Amino acid sequence: MYRKAMVAAAVIAALAGLGCRSKDTGKKVAKVEVKGKNLPSPALVYTSKGQIYRYRANEKPEFLADGSAWFPALNPAGTLVAYWEDEAAFMSAYVIDIASKQKTKIGRWQTLGANGRNLNLRNSPCWHATQDLVFFADGRQIWQVSGDGTNLQTIYEHPDAGCYSLAVSPDGKNIAFVGVTEKDQNLWIYSMVSKQARKVTDYTVNMGAVGGVSWSPAGDRIAFVLYKTEESNIVTIPAEGGPTVQLTKSGNVNSPSWDVTGRKLTVGTGGQNAYIWQVALMNVADGKLITQLTDEPHGAYSPNISGAW
Fold first, then answer.
1. CB under 8 Å, gap of 24 or more: what pairs does 197-204 form?
2. What is the CATH number of the domain that holds 64?
């Protein structure tokens, strides 16, 4: 179901049926760097049947929020979750406190028709690595807000493209995002210092579509989903741009999220059932799935993690 929705969104945006202009270097792997000795405990949040859950090793999934909730994002401390709620003609942004279950509504925006709604349904927010700031994007704007829902402000507005699927660099100075036009769907990076944005990949409407961005904890690489027709695979690229490395070949993997060691990713995968996807842990070095983390009857989607897995 998830893959069909993604493909439908790509068709609406005229971005399906695709190839790739960036160079695929085959067997190379992303650089791995372990930072710090006291690594935080692993935690995972995901969506299932419009509800958000948190999963920790050897524990049952904990319900956090209902409604038609999508793309939960954990803050580095693992105490807050930012996410979108789908309200058909509108999308609302929320932050929920995991301990108290208190929800703070950040705002409510029109989805600009079917195309805007489909793009928002794969539009993940992200947290600053060291500050209590969460970044959302909607339409052509990227904006930031404090974790308590205050100080909402626009930090960037793209002149030509929609901005979706955010990831912030470990030093908090850059934001990676997916820029979407009628002609392409590419990876962009916005500098919080220079206030400028640049395109990192060069896919066209007939060549490829980028989605699901995640920045490595070492800051050297960015993982994203590459969509080609009905296939989706995980690809990494140097943060400054350059040759890509395709980590998976199966065509049924998406939504990468790095753990803090840089050695593993959680991903969504349809390996067992093409219509009911689950969350799995993947080894960055060889792109192989290590273990399946969820077993939801209705599937588990849009994983995001914190801590060391």
1. 197/156, 197/158, 200/176, 200/237, 200/241, 201/21, 201/22, 201/237, 201/241, 201/244, 202/21, 202/22, 203/18, 203/20, 203/21, 203/22, 204/21
2. 2.120.10.30
